[in-house]
Each structure stands twice: as C-alpha cells, then as structure tokens.
UniProtKB/TrEMBL annotation, chain B:
Transmembrane segments: none annotated. Keywords: Electron transport, Iron, Iron-sulfur, Metal-binding, Transport. It holds the Pfam family Fer4_15. The keyword Iron applies. This is Ferredoxin. It comes from the Bacteria. Gene3D superfamilies: 3.30.70.20. One of its GO terms (molecular function) is iron-sulfur cluster binding.
C-alpha cells in the first residue's frame, strides 16, 4: 500500500494510487481536466498527466520526446527496466518487434480461439450456477483471460494462479518495491526459459514455438532474451487487463438493470455495448518517460519526469464524447482509445474484445438476473490497471 | 447521417496507411468496405468506391477510428 500522504490538492499533487482515485477516479479526472490539459505531481519522482483526449494523443504520437522504456509510473525507477518488446520498445526497434506478434492476434486468428473461450466460460459458470451468488471477480472474470492465454501459449491452465501472483507483484506491489518486481520478473523468466528449452527438443503447435521460429527483419532468429521478453509481455498485458474489462462490464450490468434488460432484449446491441464499456471503464493506463524538453498542449514538459498516459481519462473527455460520463450501450460514434493510440496500439485488442463479448454473452445466457450483494464490498485494483478484484453478486431478483 | 444519403453522391474511402494502427474497428462496422492484411492493418476494398447502400456504414467506420485514418472523398 501507498505510504504517501493523502492528497489535498489534486491539480498540483495528484496520486493515482490514492484510495479515492482507485474507488472512483472520474470526478477527479474531471477536476484535473477543467484545471489544465496537462497536470504535474512531484510524487513518483516527478510525473505529468495529460487530462484531455488531444493531449493524450499528442504524447502517444510523439515517440521522439516520450519513450516507452518505462511503462509503469512507480515510486522507484530501476536502473535498467526489464525489456518486454515491443511494448517497451521505441522506434526503430519497435516496428519489427511488433510485426512478429501481430499475425496471431488478427480478428480472424482470434476467432479460431472463440470455441475454447466459450467452453472456459461455461466450465467456470458450472461451478457456481447452483449457488445464490458468487464473487464474479474471483470465480469468473479472473480466470477467463489467463486460461485463454495459457491455451494460446501452450502452457498448463493449472499454472494460472502463479501467473496472477506475478502480475499482482509487478503491477501493484512493484509500484513501491523494486525487489518484489525484479523477483517476479526473474521467476517468470525462469518459468518460460524452461518452456523454451523443452520446445527446442520437441517443438509444439503453440505461440511459444511460433515466436521461437520467428525471424527478425534481417532474417535472423530471435534471441532467447527477446522471446522471453515478449512472453512476459503477453502474460502481463493479457491477463489482468481483460480480467478488469470483463469485471467492469459485469459490474455495470449488475448496477444498471435497465441496460442489462435492454441487452437481453436486444442482443444485437452487444458490439456497441462492449465498445461503450471499453470507453467508459477503460482499464489500462500506460506511462512514458520524458526524454527531451518539449511542450504539450502549450505546457512545458521537462526530461526526468514520467508521464501517466491515461487512456481512461481521454475516454471521458466530453469534447470528444458527448455526455462522456453517461454509459450509452448504443453509442454510435465511439473512437475510444482503451487500447491506446499510435504505434503501441494493444496487440491483443482483438483477443480482448472477443473474450469480453463471449464472457458477457455466456454469463447473460445463464444468469439473466443478478445484482451486487449489499452485505459485501466491491474492491477495485490500484494503479496501472483498474478493475474489480472483488465483485460479490447475488443471482435472481430481490425477494 | 441523413445528410449523406443523397442518391447522386459518390463516396470514395481510403485508409491512410501512415495512420492506421490496426484497431480493426472499420472492419467490424463495415466488413464489405475494408480488408485486413496479415498484420491486421486495414485497407479499403477495391478502389474504395462506396455502394449507395453502404454509405452510412462508411461514415460509421470513419467516426469510430481512433487514429482518424479513414479519409472519405465526396465526389
């Protein structure tokens, strides 16, 4: 947990790990946006945050002044942050590293995984369907992305709990404790090194083997370090992000019965509903490191600072999204940036959309009526990825 | 959208390859008008001429592109 003093001045001293931000960040972002398109805090060794869609876009497109070598705003800065190409890569290394990962994640490629994801969802629902309710975050949403990525990578689905612990250590505990982060990265690398070694003896039909057989832009095989880094990325980026997105969508449907009933009556609204959940409850905030002095939205920006690149805040900018604070499951024009902007557009966006759609469809097919359990608390994750980590639901209508 | 439904109008769409980052929103919203390559990046189908019946879909695709990569020429 954060040991920093509570925030009293959000505009000049923001802290995205403050419990009030974790609980309900939207009014805070509105306050920051009305103050300035770019705000700064001395916390986290110095950090800016763009608050408007336009300022987020300007920074995302400016890879010259803003590096991706550090992509999490933390209270400590490793001397040499562990690389996970392409998310931590800048031009010119970025493009060839990204192109290696793109083909397995096109819409057609991820459509082939859909039957397995539907089965995963139903197996999970089977385990609690006879009960009065469940914690949907720990019994359902948590397991769907991790089992799906295990299926893609060709690693045992039973190892899911270890991956979830590593990710918690890297994305949440690692904000304040470098030793915890480095230990998790080391354990993850050791784990994958074992899988790489076994595939050198006996290749398999999965994404690890695909990466091991890939050639870079000079026709050379990738180094083990590059393969390891990309595997770390797929695991870290593919799990609690989608877990959060599915959980936030279920939270919305549990707390907005009119939207839930409409989606049941008009299932053709599912695509716009999913996009609207992605916009309104975007889970992922990225970061950049300022490399050279420049200005953003007219505000000076100095090297040595980090940037909290809040795609979620951009998606709440009312100058781009009319009635931005309202969730409209039939919103038509929705150019949201939940998956980022520019060269670092999330490589797994098509996979995430498929998982979200399947997870909500299968849930609604079997549990049409559900609500928050008033005797328990919803708990949201802190920091880089925001989503429900505890989502206690009761099934059926109130008696 | 009704402004764009004049029968005499011919629309041509084009995906700016310097801007497209493969969000694939256009392909989801207007599958007849766009194709994705092996990397998931979008290209207009054929020469980009939009059949009258698909004019609304063309504008919908443009309004959902986060990178603003879709150009629509009204001839």
């Amino acid at each position: 947990m954060s040991e920093r003093p509570p925030v009293t001045d959000w505009v000049n001293d923001f802290d995205h790990t403050d419990p009030r931000w974790t609980e309900n960040p939207y009014p805070i972002w509105d306050e920051l946006r009305s103050a300035s398109p770019l705000v700064h805090t001395d916390r986290f060794l110095g950090c800016y945050m763009p608050t408007t869609f336009a300022a987020v876009k300007e920074i995302s497109y400016d890879t010259d002044h803003f590096s991706s070598r550090r992509i999490i705003v933390r209270n400590v800065r490793s001397a040499s942050p562990p690389p996970a190409p392409p998310i931590t890569s800048d031009p010119p290394e970025h493009k060839p590293a990204k192109r290696l990962l793109l083909p397995p994640f096109t819409p057609d490629a991820v459509a082939k995984l859909e039957p397995r994801v539907r089965a995963i969802c139903n197996e999970l629902i089977d385990a609690f369907i006879e009960d009065d309710g469940c914690d949907a975050a720990t019994a359902y949403t948590k397991h769907i992305p991790v089992k799906t990525i295990c299926h893609m990578l060709g690693i045992p689905e039973d190892d899911s709990d270890i991956f979830i612990r590593w990710i918690h250590e890297i994305l949440e505990l690692g904000i304040n404790d470098d030793a915890i982060l480095m230990k998790a990265v080391f354990e993850m690398s050791t784990y994958f090194a074992g899988h790489i070694a076994s595939r050198k003896q006996k290749p398999t039909d999965d994404l690890i083997t695909t990466l091991m057989n890939a050639r870079d832009d000079k026709g050379q095989p990738l180094s083990d370090a590059h393969v390891l880094g990309s595997l770390r990325l797929l695991l870290i980026a593919g799990i609690d992000t989608t877990w959060s997105a599915i959980g936030a969508a279920l939270w919305h449907l549990a707390t907005h019965p009119a939207d839930r009933d409409r989606l049941l009556a008009e299932p053709e609204l599912m695509p716009t509903a999913i996009e609207e959940f992605l916009r309104a409850y975007s889970p992922v905030t990225m970061a950049r490191e300022v490399m050279k002095e420049t200005s953003i939205a007219g505000c000076p920006v100095k090297p040595g600072n980090m940037v909290l690149l809040s795609f979620p805040a951009a998606n709440r900018d009312p100058s781009v999204f009319p009635k931005a604070d309202r969730v409209m499951i039939d919103r038509k024009g929705n150019p949201h940036v939940a998956f980022g902007l520019g060269i670092h557009r999330c490589v797994g966006s098509n996979l995430a959309r498929m998982e979200m759609t399947v997870a909500i469809e299968e849930w609604l097919k079997r549990i049409a009526s559900f609500r928050l359990d008033p005797s328990q608390k919803v708990r949201w994750s802190e920091g880089t990825v925001r989503g429900p980590r505890s989502l206690p639901l009761l099934f059926g209508k109130p008696s | 959208m009704s402004d764009h439904l004049r029968a005499s109008e011919t629309l041509k769409i084009h995906v700016d390859q310097d801007k497209c980052q493969g969000h694939a929103r256009c392909k989801a919203l207007a599958p007849e008008l766009f194709e994705l390559d092996d990397y998931g990046n979008a290209h207009e189908t054929g020469d980009g001429t939009v059949p009258t019946a698909l004019i609304d879909q063309a504008w919908l695709a443009k309004s959902n592109c986060p990178e603003n990569a879709i150009v629509i020429d009204e001839a």
